Amino acid sequence: MVDLSKPKKNSLWGTIGEFLQIGFGIFLASIGLKAFLLPNGFIDGGVTGVSLLVQTFVDIDFSILFIGFSMPFLFLAYFKISKQVFLKSIISIICLALVIYFENFERLTEDKLLISIFGGLFLGMGIGISLRNGAVLDAAEIIGIYLNQRFGISIGKIILGFNIILFSVTALVTSIETALYSVLAYFVTARVTDLIIEGFEDFIGIMIVSRYPGKIKHIIIEQLGAGITVYQGMGGYGLEIHDEEKPIIHSIINRIDLRKMHNLINQIDPDAFVVEFDVNNVKGGVLRRYLRN
Fold first, then answer.
1. Which of 67, 161, 210, 237 could form an SS bridge with 272, CB 3.0 to 4.6 Å?
2. Where in the sequence is the domain holding 244, given as residue range(s)?
3. In-domain check, residue 107
4. Pick from 18, 30, 33: nearest CA to 135
């Protein structure tokens, strides 16, 4: 999840680049809504879903409902998160509403499964690109950020709880089938949003303790092209603590290189102690560099 509460300072060209990317995200999100979800009565999570659900009962355009339901959350962002988030988000939400209002996409398919998948795909790409550039297209994210800062509750849990209530109401007032397809669209949207924000590379952290640390370091750098960090530590087992310091090798690699890493380690030290752990985010440093022979 992008931390929107800590705005970045950008140059003029950087700001222009951000708004161009946000504009592209708005266009993709509008395709997901206008060409797939809206014409077929499917809903998504958050404020978008609330607006779509209410539209089934009142003769008010989606764009007006979307802006109206978003405003309380946007004012919360202004007073409690940051004015930069408020500015970017209100511009983005109004632009999205206008694009949806004037856009005239034809219904591309009547297959409900394709509608859920591709509607979620386009909407997720749009939301993800906008979030990466500091703008919120669905204002429900703002309440998640605020409650996370105030009470320490996970943003994902807050949004999940909000959407459980929303889809439960959908099942009661429309149909269970519509609710189920809407849940599918929501999960596609959420997954694609995560991929856009976090990237497609999946990194793994590796900690290695070996009798042959020099050789292990050599193969990681030379044959995998990955960077390493070496700590000095002491081991122990049961009630015994060994005072002798041992090098602890730490590296981060792409998941696709994990099997190769194990094979290389086993060639040198089959009894090496190896710990793997997921890496959610990496910033700075050199993850990978390809060394010349």
1. 210
2. 203-278
3. yes
4. 18
Comparing CA positions, the residue from 6, 132, 123, 7 lying closest to residue 66 is 123
Instruction: Confirm if 158 and 147 have CB atoms less than 8 A apart.
Output: yes
Backbone angles phi, psi at 284, to 5 degrees: 75, 175
- Give me the amino acid identity at 40: N
- For 138: left if phi > 0, alpha if psi spans -120 to 50, otherwise beta; the answer is beta
Summarize pLDDT for 109-148 with one digit per residue, the tens. Answer: 889 999 999 999 999 899 889 888 888 888 887 887 788 7
Positive or negative: CA dihedral 218, 220, 221, 222: positive
d(CA 130, CA 13): 17
Number of domains observed in the structure of the chain = 2
Indicate whether 173 and 30 sit together in one domain: yes
**pLDDT tens across 229-258, in order?**
898 887 777 666 666 788 999 998 877 678
* 222 and 160 housed in the same domain: no
287 within domain boundaries:
no
**pLDDT of the residue at 224:** 81
177 with 231, same domain: the answer is no
DSSP state of 292: P
Helices 12-31 & 83-102 angle (0-180, nearest 10): 40
Q: Across-strand partners of 254?
A: 203
- Same domain? 72 vs 106: yes
Among candidate residues 198, 227, 251, the one where a domain is terminated: 198
DSSP string of 195-244?
Answer: HHHH-S--EEEEEEE-S-HHHHHHHIIIII-B-EEEEEEEEEETTEEEEE
pTM: 0.69
